[in-house]
Amino acid sequence: MIKEAEFAIEVELLTKRYGKYLAVNNISFKVRKGEVFALLGPNGAGKTTTVEIIETIRRPTSGQVRLLGMDVTRKKHAIVSCIGVLPQGFSSFDRITVRETMQYYSRLFGSRHVDIDGLIALVNLTDKAKEQYATLSGGLKQRLGIAIALVNDPEVVFLDEPTTGLDPRARREVWDVILGLKKKGKTVFLTTHYMEEAELLADTVTIISKGATIAMGSPDQLIENNADYLVLTLQSVEARALEIIARMGFRPDQNTNDQTILVRVAHTDDIRKILNAIQDGGASFLSMDVRKPNLEHVFLKLTGEALHQGAAGEKGAP
Ligand code: ATP
Predict the structure, then answer these.
(1) For the chain, where are the E strands, in sequence order?
(2) Is 2 close to ligand 1, i.e. is its CB under 6 Å away?
(3) Contacts (Cβ under 8 Å, ≥6 apart) of 316
(4) How far is the centre of ligand 1, averaged over its atoms, from the C-alpha of 142 (Å)?
(5) 21 lines ligand 1 (CB under 6 A)
(6) Which atom of ligand 1 is nearest to the CA of 16?
(7) Closest residue CA from atom 16 of ligand 1
(8) Could you tell me the domains of the chain?
(9) Exposed, middle or buried by CB within 10 Å (0-12, 13-18, 19+), for 280?
(10) Which atom of ligand 1 approaches the CA of 52 most closely?
(11) Is residue 46 lining ligand 1, measured as CB closer than 6 Å?
(12) Ligand 1 pocket test target in 14, 17, 18 with most atoms within 8 Å of CB
């Protein structure tokens, strides 16, 4: 009797070299069936390389990778029929309608009996079914891409940066679709640049940097394990407040777009000292808030890098 794999994906000591360049260095992680798993890392961390090895597109240099218990280097055909993939920068035929696109990909994947209208409804594109691909907004195109990834009714769905470049509303609509996939019992493997996306959607997060794993756990666990500081945010602050805070030995981050200053402090007492010093120095600010770190801060702390440009200063980041 074949023992059903407990994990959807098992990656053990995976290494990938491109010539002499070490893109992925001995990383290990497991993805449980039915969970949303997020792989996070700065540009060039090795995310796409890792995902494409699991998808059987690239070969590992060394290590073991199994999908639903199958070795990705030996069971390529079987694996491809169990997975759906939304690649980074997905695109389709400009002049073909949403429904025609779905019909075409169903034929391409040899998937008969596909409930095309059901899939179109799942990604909330029913009222766009007769529209051509070129006329769709970025968010609608991505949702079509997700529907295409589902034509073979895959058990595991890979979404490589599904919301990059989308506006906040379109991003939220894609998140709803991803939560819908989870409800249907799919395992979702997500790579993303957006921390709030991982925090909201993922059951498990793995952070990689320079090809190596640096943290793993649920978003709550990662925050709890790293919540040894507070973030003070001052809004509409005068420039000289920055100097005052820096002279006190703190390292304030300034977002020049909205004149916001973020300061990481160890104790609430530090906040009192900073506010007093700003007042004594005759500088002013409009408002302030104090928060525990979120995943964005954890990521910055662990990697020393912003996940994407402007991350630290993004609205709502603290
Ligand atoms: P991004 O967030 O920018 O997509 P990533 O984390 O997905 O980055 P990868 O695309 O896996 O990173 O790339 C990891 C490193 O390997 C990068 O330095 C990249 O330039 C390099 N690399 C990727 N593919 C190849 C290739 N085919 N040949 C040589 N080097 C490569």
Answers:
(1) 7-18, 21-32, 36-40, 62-67, 70-71, 83-86, 156-160, 187-192, 204-209, 212-217, 230-235, 253-255, 260-265, 287-291
(2) no
(3) 196
(4) 22
(5) yes
(6) 16
(7) 23
(8) 7-220 (3.40.50.300), 228-291 (3.30.70.260)
(9) exposed
(10) 11
(11) yes
(12) 18
Tell me, what amino acid is at 259? Q
Tokens representing 29 are 């992680």
Q: Which among 16, 49, 50, 308 is the best mutation to test ligand 1's pocket, defined by most ligand atoms within 8 Å of the CB?
A: 49
**Which pTM does this prediction carry?**
0.82
88 CA: nearest ligand 1 atom = 4
From first to last of the 318 residues of the chain, give the pLDDT tens digit: 445 668 999 999 999 999 999 999 999 999 999 999 999 988 888 999 999 999 999 999 999 999 999 999 999 999 999 999 999 889 999 999 999 999 999 998 877 788 999 999 999 999 999 999 999 999 999 999 999 999 999 999 999 999 988 888 899 999 999 999 999 999 999 998 888 899 999 999 999 988 889 899 999 999 888 877 888 999 877 878 888 999 999 988 887 767 788 898 988 899 999 999 999 988 888 889 998 888 888 888 787 765 544 333 333 333
Residues in the chain: 318
Nearest-CA residue for atom 21 of ligand 1: 23
